[in-house]
Design goal:
The chain is an alpha/beta fold. The chain folds into two domains: 85 residues, Leucine Dehydrogenase, chain A, domain 1 (Rossmann fold, 3-Layer(aba) Sandwich), CATH 3.40.50; 134 residues, 3-Layer(aba) Sandwich (Rossmann fold), CATH 3.40.50.720. Helices cover 41% and strands 17% of the residues. The chain contains ten helices and eleven strands. The strands form three sheets. A six-stranded parallel beta sheet has the order 1-11-8-7-5-6. Strands 3-2-4 form a three-stranded parallel beta sheet, with helices on both faces. The chain has a two-stranded antiparallel ribbon with strand order 9-10. Strand 5, helix 7 and strand 6 form a beta-alpha-beta unit. Helix 6 crosses helix 7.
Length: 293
Amino acid sequence: MQLIDGKIASEAVKTRLAEAVKVLQDKGNRKPCLAAILVGNDGASETYIASKVRTCGQIGFLSNLIRFDAQVSEERLLEEVRKINTDSTIDGLIVQLPLPAHISAEKVILAIDPKKDVDGFHPINMGNLALGLPGFVSATPKGIMMLLEHFNIETAGKNAVIIGRSNIVGTPMSLLLSKNTNPGNCTVTLCHSKTKNLNSFIKQADIVVAALGRPESIVAEDIKEGAVVIDVGITRLDDSSAPKGYRIVGDVDFKNVAPKCSWITPVPGGVGLMTIAALMQNTFTAYLKNIEN
């Protein structure tokens, strides 16, 4: 078993981006800038945003965090999105999800300029992905592809099973792995919560991408010997024996599954770190297009 270490891969991406930013700054260009909108004070969202802001600083990006309380109106939030869309000094915009129930996430995503949609959630970017056209790919699937590439994991001709069909992870992941690219060229099966005999699909998989959101639900007897397992899930479980009173786990029972795998991502320390690295890569791409115009 070999570990698909997100820390190693993400550090490589961040180092490369930091060097590229320095070269462009030395030529008189401004720094890339990522704007992030956070509504409310959800603990997980606070953590994710803090990581993104911190990473921006590490690689020489500027970050602009705009906070609203949970009672902010939908129109006020949309007004802020439209304002950022027209700000030429801001290259990328993310709106941290989930949003309060009175705000339509769909409306907010649709309001973001696709050229600044570095989360890759806008229908135009999703459509471009489906058609093989240039655009921003959702950061988690993009990060997974970057992991596979960094560790030179063979995917061509492999049977890949993706568990979870969200527009953020599962669906774009199925498109990416089936494309005529490297990584890619997989035969892909997209499974979900309504799939009958899910275990039978997993047992045939050379590559498993687990994004169902059910902690430690993928167990050793489901996994084929030598499979590659990518764990997207992340859940905090209460554990009085742990120093912090809880432990972070994925969708995969790592302890028992890992010995059967050729490669596996840890949780934490795997996909999550590369999601942020991919977001930074998307922001840098948006920045390059912006300064060219």
